[in-house]
Amino acid sequence: MTSILQISDTHFGTEQPPVVQALEAHVREHGADLLIFSGDITQRARRGQFAAARAFVERLRGHGIGETLVIPGNHDIPLYNLFARFLTPYGNYRRHFGEELEPVFENEQMLVIGLNTTHPRRHKDGRVTAEQVEAVAQRLARTDGDKVRIVVAHQPFGAMLQSDLSNLQHGAEAALRRWAELGLDLVMGGHIHLPYVLPLSGQYQGLAREIWMVQAGTTLSSRLRGTSPNSFNRLKLTPGAQKKVCVERWDMLDGHFALGSHFNLGWP
Predict the structure, then answer these.
(1) For residue 124, with 0-12 CB atoms within 10 Å meaning exposed, 13-18 middle and 19 or more buried, which class applies?
(2) Which keywords appear in this protein's UniProt record, sorted alphabetically (predicted)?
(3) C-alpha angle 91-123-47 in degrees, rounded to nearest 5
(4) Which residues pair with 186 in a beta bridge?
C-alpha cells in the first residue's frame, strides 16, 4: 500500500511552533511515500518565510518522507511589493522550491500532476487554462489505468458550502469533464482552510466517471477557519482494476495530531 501525506496553507510567517513540532512527530512515527504540499506555503512570499518552509520540508524528509511534490498558492506571490509581483512573481518560490511550477510524480502505483492555477494579475482566484486542460488530458491518456490518477491545484474544484462557490477554479467544469473521460480519480487542493472529501458528480452532473475532491485545511497556521482545527490529510492507495483510496483527516488535538475522520473511496 502506498501512502500520501497532504499538507496545505501552512502560511509560514504565521506558523505555530507547537503545531510544527506535532506534525514532525507524526511523520517520525508514520512516514509517507509522497508529500503533497498544495500551496500557500508562505503568508507574504518573503525570502525568510520560504527559507523556513524549505527547512521544514527537509526535516520532514529526514523523518521519513520519500518524495515531495510542491505547488504555489496565491499567497506565494508577493502582494505589496508590486515590482516583484509583476516582474519576478515566483522568484522566492523558485529560489527555495525549484524552477518547476507544475511538477509531476509518477511511479507504479500513482500519477500525480501538479497545476499552477495562480497568476500575479489575480489576487486569489484560480484558473485552469485550456492549455493546462489539454496537457493533463495527454498525460492521463498515456498512463496505465490501474494507477491512481490525481491532479493537485491550490484552489478547489468543488464546494461543500454555498459561500465557497466564489472560490472555485475558473474553468473547473470544462476541465473535469475532459479529465473524467480519461479516467481521473482525484483532485486535491487547499486555499479555503476547510477540509472535506466530496464526490464531484453531485455538482457537475453527467461526468463520465466519479472524480473525488480531497480538500486540505490549514496545517500549521494560526489563520484557522471557524471551528476547523489545524489538520492534514493522509491517503492510503490501493491501485489496480478495483482501485481504492482511504482518505484520513488528522486534526490537532491536545498538543498532537489525532485521527479525526476517514473516507473509503472506490470506483467500479
Answers:
(1) middle
(2) Exonuclease, Hydrolase, Iron, Metal-binding, Nuclease
(3) 30
(4) 150, 212
Q: How far is CA 214 from CA 5, 85, 150, in A?
A: 12, 30, 10
Structure confidence by residue, pLDDT tens digits, 69-122 = 999 999 999 998 887 899 999 999 999 999 999 999 999 999 999 999 999 998
Write down the residue that cell numbers 489496480 correspond to: 240
| DSSP letter assigned to residue 228 | P
The CATH number of 2-266, from 3.60.21.10, 3.20.20.360, 3.40.50.920, 3.30.379.10, is 3.60.21.10
State the Cα–Cα distance between residues 18 and 36, nearest whole angstrom: 21
CA gyration radius, the chain: 17
What is the reported pTM? 0.97
CA–CA gap between residue 240 and residue 87 (Å, rounded): 45
